[in-house]
Amino acid sequence: PQDFVMDLGSGDGRNVIAAAKRGSRARGVEYNPAMVELSKRNAAAAGVSDKATFVEGDMYEADISTANVMALFLLPSNMLQLRSKFFNLAPGSRIVSNTFGMEGWTPDHTETTPECSAWCTVLLWIVPAKVEGTWHTPQGVLALKQDFQMISGTLADAPITEATLRGEAITFKAGGATYAGRVRGNLIEGTVSGGGAWSARR
Fold first, then answer.
1. CB 3.0 to 4.6 Å from 183: which of 2, 46, 129, 193, for a disulfide?
2. Among residues 21, 144, 125, 110, which one has the least CA distance to residue 71?
């Protein structure tokens, strides 16, 4: 119920209506005005018009900045064109796609639905915080490179390993220690193995 779900190219509204039935606020953006009207009728019939809304518009121009879930069934070319907008959503936002992925951005999780005859794969991305750059820590300079949720780099010239970035949560190993923290803009705060605390500023 705390989520705001958006579907781009929402068709007959089924994704938006399904989200609304689960208590979320949800909005569909659809270019075809006849489908927008059909979606509104379907939402009314499902009793969720208070939570499910539909607008006529171009999905590439739609403001998605307040959404924290994107529920999508788009072609790879559509997904690629929208990729930069998805990457700019708030860290921790979820992007869920039926069947089709985004070139250059590996999903965090993929699952295939059993006993399904068509369009049976779901892909999930967790929007990562933007961490690339130079960070200053008590342990030395933390230099990070980022390719969406994939990160690499060094801490005090020691290479980091086993690095993960899931939303705001970052973990890695360096110099024999394991670091875990949460990214808040230009600040990372967390714990280091052995019970100590660590922080980094960019």
1. 129
2. 125
